[in-house]
TrEMBL record:
<keyword id="KW-0472">Membrane</keyword>
<dbReference type="Pfam" id="PF03168">
    <property type="entry name" value="LEA_2"/>
</dbReference>
<dbReference type="InterPro" id="IPR004864">
    <property type="entry name" value="LEA_2"/>
</dbReference>
<keyword id="KW-1133">Transmembrane helix</keyword>
<keyword id="KW-0812">Transmembrane</keyword>
<feature type="domain" description="Late embryogenesis abundant protein LEA-2 subgroup">
    <location>
        <begin position="110"/>
        <end position="193"/>
    </location>
</feature>
<dbReference type="InterPro" id="IPR044839">
    <property type="entry name" value="NDR1-like"/>
</dbReference>
<dbReference type="GO" id="GO:0098542">
    <property type="term" value="P:defense response to other organism"/>
</dbReference>
<feature type="transmembrane region" description="Helical">
    <location>
        <begin position="52"/>
        <end position="73"/>
    </location>
</feature>
<dbReference type="GO" id="GO:0005886">
    <property type="term" value="C:plasma membrane"/>
</dbReference>
<feature type="region of interest" description="Disordered">
    <location>
        <begin position="1"/>
        <end position="37"/>
    </location>
</feature>
<protein>
    <submittedName>
        <fullName>PREDICTED: YLS9</fullName>
    </submittedName>
</protein>
Length: 236
């Protein structure tokens, strides 16, 4: 007779087989499987690029802030230009050949209004027009100005039987008959503002002197500036 208090012995029951060949359920169903061996690998090239880009951005921001502070402190002002004198000699115009002859000597007065900045002018070029029609151009020697300086600059233009076109020749001929001809004078230069060791970025200076009137004599092809000095428009 079997003793009911005797423990039952025998082989353990086989584990329950999961469908589709799966594994038994994990004791912790929320536990994820380990990632592959390269999932968290360190990429030195990507890290270097990120650091380099970050450093360049920081450098540009710092340099921009410095330039902005310098600009706000120094506050550069554009120079003032005006035509103080103009003489014309050997002037002649022919509507038939649409040509022009003459020598213009133009005197500019340039004023630097800055209290803290000097100005350097390089690659200075000047030209003279009748309306939009080009007549002659010339180069002017470079020059520099200290703070609050006034500088006289001269430009000489020459034309010898230069072709100017029918509209320009006819317009000048008609204006000459009235005793006065107005010209436009332009000047271009590369300017650099300076303060001790500081040098701000070079800029293109554009000067336009509109309607510079020249009174012509009845004989000899001579002319002088009419109406006094003429202020010019200046853009940097």
């Amino acid at each position: 007779m079997t003793d009911p208090t005797r423990p039952v012995t025998g082989y353990p029951a086989p584990p329950y087989a999961q469908p589709n060949g799966g594994y038994p359920y994990s004791a912790n169903p929320t536990q994820t499987q380990p990632r592959g061996p390269y999932s968290n690998a360190y990429n030195p090239r990507a890290a270097f690029i990120r650091r380099f880009v970050g450093a360049m951005v920081a450098l540009f921001v710092i340099v921009g802030c410095i330039l902005l502070v310098v600009w706000l402190i120094l506050r550069p002002k554009v120079p003032d230009f005006r035509v103080d004198s103009l003489s014309l000699s050997n002037f002649n115009v022919s509507s038939a050949s649409q040509s022009l002859t003459g020598t213009w000597s133009v005197g500019f007065m340039v004023y630097n209004p800055n209290k803290k900045l000097s100005i350097r002018y390089d690659d200075v070029e000047s030209s003279i027009y009748y309306g939009p029609g080009f007549i002659s151009g010339t180069r002017v020697p470079p020059f520099a100005q200290g703070t609050k300086d006034r500088t006289s600059v001269n430009a000489t233009f020459s034309a010898a039987n230069s072709f100017v076109g029918a509209s320009v020749a006819r317009g000048i001929d008609e204006a000459r008959a009235r005793g006065s001809v107005s010209f436009n004078v332009k000047l271009l230069a590369r300017v650099e503002f300076r303060r001790g060791g500081w040098r701000l970025r070079r800029r293109l200076l554009r000067v336009l002197c509109r309607g510079v009137a020249v009174s012509l004599s009845s004989e000899g092809g001579l002319g002088t500036l009419a109406g006094g000095s003429r202020d010019c428009q200046v853009v940097v």
